[in-house]
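Quick check before the chapter quiz. The format below is the same one you will see on the exam, so make sure you can read both the input and the output lines.
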Amino acid sequence: MAVLWLPTREQLIVGPIVLLSPLALVLAQKPSRNTLGLGTRGFVSSWWVLPASVGLMMLGIVVAREIGVYHPLYAPDFRHVAGYVVWTIYQQFLLQDYFVPRLTRLVSSDAAISIAAILFAVAHLPNIPLMIATLVWGAVSCLLFRRYRSLWVLGLAQGMLGLCFAVCIPDVWLHHMRVGLGYFHYRG
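Here is the expected output.
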């Protein structure tokens, strides 16, 4: 989380190391694809999460249009959108495969989910609307992962819901969904 508060140049140097370290630590334990949530186990039974996410997106867009806050995505090109969805899948990996298992060794499963959701929200400081959304989604996604173990579905759902959030919440509040130091560098 501290990397988010570094200047851009330093983020580009330290960020990849910090992001890839949890991946290396998890993979060093040689977990199965199903354990990681990257296999077929739970994929079909969790598929309902994607249409439910689309339904929430449609509802969000209708409400945002009705109250006059809907706006286009600031960078609607494929590369930006695809990069964001890949990032949400990796965020789910960090949450479900790195943080929750470690927290579960220290506290009960339910407490681990609560703590992980709080950490997920805090990682989105100082963006208050994003913090609220990630607190809720962090808890929901942890509960869904505990039941279905499908990282793909949760990452895709988070990507869709995040993109919806980006067009339904005014940028004056959301700052293009930036967090950390980048939140303060936003110029609308």
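If your answer matched, good. The longest helix spans residues 78-106.
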